[in-house]
Amino acid sequence: MQEGRVLPARQINRDLLGSILYSPRWFWGAVAVLGLIVMGGFAAAGLMINQGMGVTGLNRPVMWGFFIVNFVFWIGISHAGVMLSAILRLSKAEWRRPATRAAEVLTVFSLMTAMLMPLIHTGRPWRLVYWIYTIPFIPYDFARGIWPNIRSPLVWDPSAVYTYLTSSILFVLVALIPDLAVLRDRTTGLPHKIYTVLAMGWQGNPRQWKLQIIAGVLLSALILPVFVSVHSIVSWDFGMAIAVKPWHSTIFAPYFVVGAVHSGVSAVAFVMIILRWIYGWQDYIRHEHIDALGRLLIVVATGWFYFFVMEVIFGFYGREADEIAFRDFQINQPPWNLWFIFFVGLTYFLPVAMWLASSWRRNLWLMSIACISVNIGMWLERFLIIIPALAEKQLFTFTWYTYAPSAVEITIVAATFALVSMLMLLFARVLPLIPLYDVKEGDILKTEIQIGRRTVPATFRED
Amino acid sequence: MADQRFDHKWGMVVDLDRCTGCQACVVACQSENNIPINTKDLFLQRRAYEWIRVERYWEGEFPNVKARFIPIMCQHCENAPCEPVCPVYATYHNDEGLNVQVYNRCVGTRYCANNCPYQVRFFNYWEPVWPERMRNHLNSDVTVRSRGIMEKCSFCIQRIRRAELKVEQQERAVLDYPTMKKRNFLPACVSACPTNALTFADQSDTTGPVNRYFKALDDHEGGESAPRAYRLIEEVGTKPNVIYLKKVDKYPLKNGGGHG
Questions:
Q1: What is the CATH class of A9-457?
Q2: Choosing among A48, A49, A53, A233, which should be mutated to test the B contact, i.e. which has the most B CBs within 10 A?
Q3: What value of ipTM does the predicted structure carry?
């Protein structure tokens, strides 16, 4: 039996559409502040494109830096959406209901932000059309015989990410249709017209519901392979690099996928706590949801920890001089050793310790701290995989160097966080971040029904 | 008269016993290939361009000390790790065994440089500038690269092309090692090397100095006829087209030396 009251449908509409129909006083202030940071990031990117990659801290051994770290991080965050909505939908976990939309939207926005990173980090972004479809309707330059190199992981990677982005957008849109119809019926003027078009003639009749549910389940099932493949392929950007010994590892694909789910689900839990706080959705995002996410996260975090330990142990077990030298560099040498301790503690030991006790999981402050700690830790994880491996790539000490990010890189990384937050806020302004119909459906299923002589929650249904 | 094709596979042999670390090859390469001027800033940012560089390692403790030199340039690997990772085919292997870089195609993902075990790929972080008075010094046979692209040693492909055009196509003669040496068609570093530490020729050219080393290593005879020959970072499986000859240490350090 779930906690929480069964609310009348009218109140659900009023509560959850409140952020759309009435804009809170702080809203534009928050958007303006975030927008300024985003503008700063765009200015920094503009400076970089104008002056050249020299304005970054990249150098000869370390050719990939903060941008690629940030790219992998945001791709990781994007794994929350499918984890929460597709997997939990297919496994019929009831507590997923209020979390699904926020997770899917976070997926879409973090994927968009992530793809900005490799695009601006190239030396000549204006030639990107040789590489990927950056501009819609401008295809590869086949007429001049200019083909992408399909052996390159950098061709697989955008293909996977863009497939994931497309299917995530479809996923969000299909789930949005019934709520768009509710909005259509409650607005006037221009918004009404826009919502009318977007709702695509939704009437709420049984046939439409049936189609919507079929589409949702189908998309959930179809998106799962994409979900697994995206971060696997992102990890192959590193795993396929034979010359960088610490990257050249077969464990990377599952290691990255589990890590992505770890950081993504933590991010969603944090976003839900924030939403609960700023919009007062105590009746919808309840302690039981955060509690359930915490329990899920213990499993995910421990799965991630397994791969992490395996990666280190394989290095020592193989007794390959290069591998041991790299681990020594990563784990023993300053400043990396300090970051390494932070990374392991923040990613696993601190948050999992917080998630073990039920009362701690239900404490929103502790939960926020744990989720932020996971994400800082996972950012550091990518940093510690990418940078030390490049800094001392091979045995010739002559070319060894280190890496320090420049102000431009730090600004752009900060701007990506502001960008995702701003997009989430703007989304909450125009579309409901908690699916209305899903919550109502959950309420109906929550009521008890008679099956024979037993009284059970309606969750036990026949389909 | 159709152009007749001549098969070549170029190779270089670096004799470390002859290398004195004089850096003449570095200077020759710099001026031949329109390499931007390495300012102090570029060195401090670790973004200096050295298509060929002389790495120096110290052996032993002062005063019982020795300097070791090893010139490293693009190894033109048969299994080049940089080639498959380029998403736009900006780097590929041509039919003469050279790893070539197409500046026009490069978008600057820098993946190739990450994947190069020899660290011989150079990214143009800044737009290269030359002082006005240097304008006429630029080699007109070599592209001036813009910023945002990757560049590296080409085995002076402009000289090889000129040799093939002049000798093979126009004069219908055989392009053997003596011709290349006499008419200055060897790469700039090779022709500048005062001690002949660097040698360059077609690998199958029996008149050339490199043939016996490539034969010794590639025929799997255990290198008996060339005991000093080895390839750099061979264990990655890159199969470089550059062979190094080990230094002969006549007077080893008294205490066995230390680490470099």
A1: mainly alpha
A2: A53
A3: 0.90
